[in-house]
């Protein structure tokens, strides 16, 4: 038991120091923890989540091409037009805009361009910017569990199917989408009158007495409407949307997936040696129409959905480069592609480290927690939430913790029901989107707080995630 706790401290220390350094360091520090477990304690290395990583690379490449084409600027303009047309309702409309942008693109980092616009509209309308800004930042991350191309959703489907719970991406979205919308609307309602009005806020009024501060707050505005969007940018958006629609179609209609023959079992000869000494495998001989003794099964297999996503996303990226004048160099220097690659490294290191530790102690965990999990299996949501606080990645939580949940006998419908709980990294205000939101709010009403946890994102984050998880769990229990 002492060794088990010591090894757990190694895992937690790697995550803690990685999160302190941020960015690529989170995945890299996981490598230190992995090396200690393998080389010092002699653990068998786990399996890195290569399928999820490949999907992220494909999706981020396509999203990066979309950004390079100017397509994201067009989406931001559409959102800004909606917000400026209805400024009085910005506390409700702003989070819906950031939420659906994430659902479409698969990453919450698309909100950076829209956030200063949200703050500007709020100030011009006399609305405390903290109200829409905080919930909009939270909503941009909530959308990840509702995006058909997000790693968290695809990994949930893949891992669930492997463990005998057959679900598809549309079936996940049928539960997570309405549940997360309920959570966002609930958080928007509690944010609607949050904090003092700007005219009654002594801290804000004190800033206005300083001419320089007043000029900084009101003197400049943020807008994307003055940017001319070329037709190629709009074309890129439709290519991207078409790719997502094709993925959803294949996920909804598995019979439409292409199939191929595959040798699944050979009990006799492994192959044959030709006259020139070349060895040819049994599979190659069978494909060539040559009978091989010992071939017991040769069956049709449908193309896996994870491969479909990769193929379609890479193809769509190529079409955007060809038909929409998107620069590949501009794509790899954009925020979407760079942040996506950081996520790849984080998931790679964290999930490999977690799989190594938990796979080693799985029998012990089953014996110690089996009775409690059997009675309170919904409590796995708390575990997901806490782990998310530590590792700042919903995809990494899914890849590292959901296999553990299935191994402990938790039913698939319960895991699907508590899926929104994989977002908990708003709890500590160190995530890039939250920090950026604080900086974009020129009024200073969106803040971190003196005691770290009393920050602007805590209340909307808790309300949103708790409400979404409760609704999702209820829907899953009714359907399954």
How are the SSEs ordered, and which strands pair?
Elements: H1 2-21, H2 25-40, H3 50-69, H4 71-85, H5 90-105, H6 115-125, H7 130-142, H8 151-162, H9 169-191, H10 202-208, H11 211-218, H12 231-252, E1 259-266, E2 271-273, E3 279-281, H13 282-287, E4 295-302, H14 305-323, H15 328-333, H16 335-360, H17 362-375, H18 380-391, H19 394-407, H20 412-417, H21 432-440, H22 458-479
Antiparallel strand pairs: 1-4, 2-3
Structure write-up:
The model has no long low-confidence stretch (mean pLDDT 86). It is built from 22 helices and four strands. Helices cover 66% and strands 5% of the residues. It has helices spanning 2-21, 25-40, 50-69, 71-85, 90-105, 115-125, 130-142, 151-162, 169-191, 202-208, 211-218, 231-252, 282-287, 305-323, 328-333, 335-360, 362-375, 380-391, 394-407, 412-417, 432-440, 458-479, and strands at residues 259-266, 271-273, 279-281, 295-302. The strands form two sheets. A two-stranded antiparallel sheet has the order 1-4. The two termini are 38 Å apart. It is mainly α and 480 residues long.
Offer a quick outline of the entry:
66% of the residues lie in helices and 5% in strands. By secondary structure, the chain is mainly alpha-helical.
List keywords for this structure.
66% helix; mainly alpha; 4 strands; 480 residues; two-stranded antiparallel ribbon
* Tally of individual helices: 22
Uncertain residue segments: none
Task: Please give the oligomerization state of what you see.
Answer: single chain
- Order of helix and strand elements from N to C terminus: HHHHHHHHHHHHEEEHEHHHHHHHHH
User: How much of the sequence is in beta strands?
Assistant: under 5%
**Main sheet: which strands, in order across?**
1-4
Q: Between the first and last Cα atoms, what is the distance in angstroms?
A: 38 Å
Global geometry: globular
Specify Rg, calculated over alpha carbons. 25 Å
Write down how many β-strands occur, each being a DSSP E stretch of 2 or more residues.
4
Specify the biggest β-sheet.
Answer: 2 strands, antiparallel
- Tell me, rounded to a whole number, the average pLDDT: 86
């Amino acid at each position: 038991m002492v060794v088990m706790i010591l090894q757990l401290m190694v895992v937690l220390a790697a995550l803690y120091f990685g999160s302190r350094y941020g960015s690529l360091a989170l995945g890299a520090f996981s490598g230190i923890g992995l090396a200690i477990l393998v080389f010092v304690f002699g653990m068998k290395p786990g399996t890195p989540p290569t399928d999820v990583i490949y999907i992220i690379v494909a999706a981020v490449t396509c999203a990066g091409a979309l950004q390079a084409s100017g397509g994201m600027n067009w989406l931001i303009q559409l959102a800004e037009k909606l917000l400026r047309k209805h400024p009085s309702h910005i506390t409700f409309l702003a989070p819906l805009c950031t939420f659906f942008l994430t659902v479409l693109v698969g990453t919450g980092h698309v909100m950076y361009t829209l956030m200063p616009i949200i703050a500007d509209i709020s100030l011009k309308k006399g609305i405390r910017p903290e109200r829409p800004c905080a919930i909009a930042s939270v909503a941009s991350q909530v959308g990840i569990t509702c995006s058909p191309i997000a790693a968290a959703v695809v990994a949930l489907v893949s891992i669930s199917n492997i463990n005998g719970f057959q679900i598809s991406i549309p079936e996940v979205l049928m539960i997570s989408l309405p549940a997360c919308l309920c959570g966002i609307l609930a958080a928007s309602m509690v944010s609607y009158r949050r904090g003092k009005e700007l005219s009654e806020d002594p801290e804000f009024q004190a800033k206005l007495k300083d001419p320089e501060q007043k000029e900084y707050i009101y003197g400049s505005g943020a807008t994307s409407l003055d940017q001319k969007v070329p037709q190629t940018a709009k074309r890129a958006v439709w290519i991207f949307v078409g790719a997502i629609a094709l993925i959803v179609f294949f996920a909804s209609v598995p019979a439409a997936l292409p199939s191929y023959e595959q040798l699944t079992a050979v009990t006799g000869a492994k192959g044959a040696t030709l006259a020139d000494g070349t060895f040819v495998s049994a599979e190659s001989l069978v494909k060539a129409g040559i009978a091989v003794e010992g071939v017991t099964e040769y069956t049709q297999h449908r193309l896996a959905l994870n491969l479909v996503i990769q193929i379609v996303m890479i193809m769509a990226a190529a079409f955007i480069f060809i038909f929409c004048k998107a620069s590949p160099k501009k794509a790899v220097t954009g925020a979407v592609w760079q942040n996506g690659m950081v996520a790849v490294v984080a998931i790679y290191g964290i999930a490999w480290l977690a799989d190594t530790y938990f796979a080693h102690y799985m029998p012990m965990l089953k014996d110690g927690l089996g009775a409690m999990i059997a009675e309170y299996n919904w409590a796995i949501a708390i575990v997901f939430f806490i782990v998310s606080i530590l590792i700042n990645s919903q995809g990494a939580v899914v890849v590292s913790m959901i296999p553990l949940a299935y191994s402990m006998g938790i039913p698939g419908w319960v895991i699907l029901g508590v899926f929104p709980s994989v977002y908990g990294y708003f709890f500590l205000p160190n995530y890039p989107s939250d920090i950026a939101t604080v900086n974009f709010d020129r009024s200073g009403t969106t803040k971190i707080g003196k005691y770290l946890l009393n920050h602007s994102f805590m209340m909307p984050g808790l309300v949103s995630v708790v409400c979404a998880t409760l609704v999702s769990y209820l829907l899953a229990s009714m359907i399954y």
